[in-house]
Please model this.
Amino acid sequence: MEQYLKPSMEGGIFITFEGGEGCGKSSHIKALKEWFESRGFSCVITREPGGTPLAEKIRALLLERGSDEPMCALTELLLFEAARAQHVEALIRPALKAGKVVISDRFYDSTTAYQGAARALDPKTVALLNKVATSSLSPDLTIILDLPVAEGLARANLRDEGAADRMGSQSTDFYEAVRKAFLDLAKAEPERFRVVSSAGSKEETFNEILGVVRGKFGI
Ligand code: TMP
Model:
């Protein structure tokens, strides 16, 4: 394995990707895993909500559309946090302790943006629950893939063939609030966040992501 700066308190490297609907996180995450592995790193990719069998069951509840009983905003928040607690304890922390690179498609910043900003739940409650669910685990690097909302929704619509899940079926204003929240988070914590535009080609975006990762970890 190549030498690299080891910034995580847990032993490995923890990278998260965030962004609105249709911003292209999953294909870049797969490509980044291959890039790490080609350099001799052991790399795990995972996602939120989900990542373990139990957390994936909670994901299905959260994303199910057309249920007879509308989900309350607080229930939604607590389910995201329940899935996260399981994910951190059962998958992320053990992988980091084993010295692996863990790349997660979303983490607690999504809760800050979607449930805190867009659903307008109390930010202090959201911050506290994020802390409790992760037992204060924070990513070493968070990459926000930024895209105008209309473009992201059009891409997501193509990908899902018009059948968006519950969280993908909100109003345009909701996703504008999500986008603004991510950009505000990046301004407030510039050490951890990097904003990468995903408006260009896949190749351009991935090259920018690689530049960020190499610069941050000295790889
Ligand atoms: P995905 O479509 O990127 O897989 O994410 C699932 C949806 O769940 C997406 O619309 C974002 C939303 N979400 C939240 O609202 N809060 C959260 O904490 C997380 C992790 C995801």
